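stage 2 :: seqdesign
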C-alpha cells in the first residue's frame, strides 16, 4: 500500500492533464435554467459518465423528470467505508454576455496577482469542485490501483434551479445511495489560505402578509383622520416584531435555540470581521444585546423584511389611503426551530394586532429546518485533519446564514451526516460575469480530496450499514 505522499506526487505530476480536462469540462454550456441549455446538459452528462467509467466506477446516466443525474459507484469491498460524494455540473446563465471580458464557455487563462486564473462560467461554482474530487479519485486509482474507500459519486444537473427532481431521485435510489457519510463539494473557504467546513446551516421559510381594510382606496384628505389605513397597521405590526436591540418579540420564537458551545463561540468571536463581512457595513444593525457579529450571522435566528407594497408607488403625487398593504418576510432558523411552529406563532402574532375592521391574508407553505452536523463526528475530524495537512492555516469550523436544502434532504432521507466543504472564494464572481478560478487552488483542492480519502481509509464503517 503506497503512502499518501505518492498519491500527492501523482496529483502534481498529472496537473497539466488535469487542467486540460478541466478546460474541456468548462466548455460545456450546461445551463439548467434555459431551454437551449438542454444540449449542453446532455453532452456534459455523457462526458462525465465517460470520465467516471475511466476510474473503474460503474457509471450511468439516470433520467429524472428534469435534467439527468450522473452516478458512478465503486464495487463494494468488504469492511470498507462507503462515502457519497455529491456535486453539480449545471451552471448559471452567463447573461449579460457583454459584461464578460472573454466568452463564458471558451475558457481563458490570465496571469493575475501571481496566479494563473481560468475565466469561464462554472469555473468556481461548481465545476472546479466536481473536478477536484474526480481528479483525486484518479490519482488514487493510478497510484494504488484502487480508490481507498467505497464511493458513490452523485452529480446533479439541476442544482442551479433548486434541485426539483432530486428528492424523488433520492427516494428511488435510496438503497444505492446508502453510505456512512455524505460529502457536499460545493462550498467556500474562509480565505485563500484557510479552508473551512460548514457545520451549521440555517433553516428558511418565507411569508407574505396582506392587511386588508374594510374599504376600497380612499382620498386621504377626506378620510385620512378617521378611516383605518392598512399601511399604518402593517408598519405597526412589523415594527413590533423586534425590540430596540433586534431581538424577536414573538412568544415562542426562540424555542429550540440553544447557546453555542463556548469553544465555537470563542473561535467565531476571534475571526477577522473584515474577512467575514467582505466590505459590507453593519453600522446601525442589531446586536441582540451583545451577540457578536459572526454569531448573529451564523448562529442566531432572525426575521427580515424583504419588501413592502401599498398605495402610491408611482412617480406622481396621489393622496390615497390604500385598501391593502403587503409585506414579504424571510425567517432564518437555527437549532431545533421548526418552520411549521414558527409560521403558526407568527400568524397568531399578526392576527392579535389587527384593529377592528381589518383582516389579514397569509401566503407561504413549506420551509426548511436548520441543519447542524455533529462537530465531534469522526468523519468531520478526519476531514479537518486532511485539510490542516494541506493548507497553511487550520481549518475553520463555521456556519452560514444561507440555506442549503440538499443538506437536509440527504441527512433526513439517508440518515447520515453531510460534510460541507469546498474551495470557492468570495471574489470568484460566482453567478456573475467573469467567473474565475485559479490553477493553484485547483491543485490544492485535488490534493485536499486525496488527503481526505486517505484519512477516511482508516475510519470504520457504521455497524448499521
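stage 2 :: out
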Amino acid at each position: 500500500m503506497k503512502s499518501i505522499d505518492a498519491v500527492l506526487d501523482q496529483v502534481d505530476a498529472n496537473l497539466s492533464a488535469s487542467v486540460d480536462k478541466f478546460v474541456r469540462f468548462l466548455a460545456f454550456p450546461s445551463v439548467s435554467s434555459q431551454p437551449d441549455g438542454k444540449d449542453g446538459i446532455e453532452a456534459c452528462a455523457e462526458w462525465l459518465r465517460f470520465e467516471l467509467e475511466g476510474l473503474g466506477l460503474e457509471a450511468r446516466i439516470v433520467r429524472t423528470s428534469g435534467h439527468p443525474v450522473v452516478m458512478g459507484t465503486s464495487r463494494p469491498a468488504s469492511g470498507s467505508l462507503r462515502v457519497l460524494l455529491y456535486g453539480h455540473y449545471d451552471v448559471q446563465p452567463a447573461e449579460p454576455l457583454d459584461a464578460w471580458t472573454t466568452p463564458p464557455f471558451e475558457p481563458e487563462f490570465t496571469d493575475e496577482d501571481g496566479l494563473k486564473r481560468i475565466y469561464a462560467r462554472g469555473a468556481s461554482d461548481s465545476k472546479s469542485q466536481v473536478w477536484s474530487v474526480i481528479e483525486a479519485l484518479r490519482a488514487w486509482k493510478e497510484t494504488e490501483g484502487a480508490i481507498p474507500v467505497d464511493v458513490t459519486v452523485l452529480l446533479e444537473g439541476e442544482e442551479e434551479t433548486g434541485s426539483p427532481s432530486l428528492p424523488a431521485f433520492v427516494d428511488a435510489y435510496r438503497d444505492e445511495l446508502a453510505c456512512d457519510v455524505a460529502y457536499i463539494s460545493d462550498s467556500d473557504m474562509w480565505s485563500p489560505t484557510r479552508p473551512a467546513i460548514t457545520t451549521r446551516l440555517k433553516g428558511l421559510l418565507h411569508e407574505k402578509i396582506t392587511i386588508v381594510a374594510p374599504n376600497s382606496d380612499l382620498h386621504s384628505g377626506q378620510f385620512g383622520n378617521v378611516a383605518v389605513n392598512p399601511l399604518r397597521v402593517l408598519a405597526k405590526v412589523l415594527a413590533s416584531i423586534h425590540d430596540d436591540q433586534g431581538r424577536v418579540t414573538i412568544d415562542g420564537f426562540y424555542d429550540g435555540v440553544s447557546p453555542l458551545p463556548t469553544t465555537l463561540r470563542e473561535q467565531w468571536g476571534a475571526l477577522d470581521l473584515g474577512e467575514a463581512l467582505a466590505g459590507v457595513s453593519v453600522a446601525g444593525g442589531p446586536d441582540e444585546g451583545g451577540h457578536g457579529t459572526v454569531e448573529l450571522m451564523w448562529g442566531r435566528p432572525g426575521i427580515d423584511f424583504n419588501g413592502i407594497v401599498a398605495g402610491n408607488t408611482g412617480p406622481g403625487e396621489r393622496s390615497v389611503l390604500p385598501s391593502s398593504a403587503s409585506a414579504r418576510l424571510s425567517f432564518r432558523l437555527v437549532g431545533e426551530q421548526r418552520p411549521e411552529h414558527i409560521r403558526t406563532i407568527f400568524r397568531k402574532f399578526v392576527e392579535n394586532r389587527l384593529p377592528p375592521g381589518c383582516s389579514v391574508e397569509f401566503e407561504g407553505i413549506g420551509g426548511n429546518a436548520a441543519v447542524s452536523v455533529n462537530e465531534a463526528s469522526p468523519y468531520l475530524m478526519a476531514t479537518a485533519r486532511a485539510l490542516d495537512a494541506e493548507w497553511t492555516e487550520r481549518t475553520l469550523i463555521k456556519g452560514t446564514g444561507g440555506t442549503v436544502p440538499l443538506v437536509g434532504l440527504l441527512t433526513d432521507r439517508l440518515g447520515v451526516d453531510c460534510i460541507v466543504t469546498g474551495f470557492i472564494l468570495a471574489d470568484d464572481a460566482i453567478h456573475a460575469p467573469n467567473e474565475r478560478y485559479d490553477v493553484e487552488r485547483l491543485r490544492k483542492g485535488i490534493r485536499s480530496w486525496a488527503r481526505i480519502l486517505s484519512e477516511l481509509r482508516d475510519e470504520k464503517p457504521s455497524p448499521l450499514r
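stage 3 :: structure notes
- The chain is about 35% helix and 20% strand.
- Residues 86 and 292 are 33 Å apart (CA to CA).
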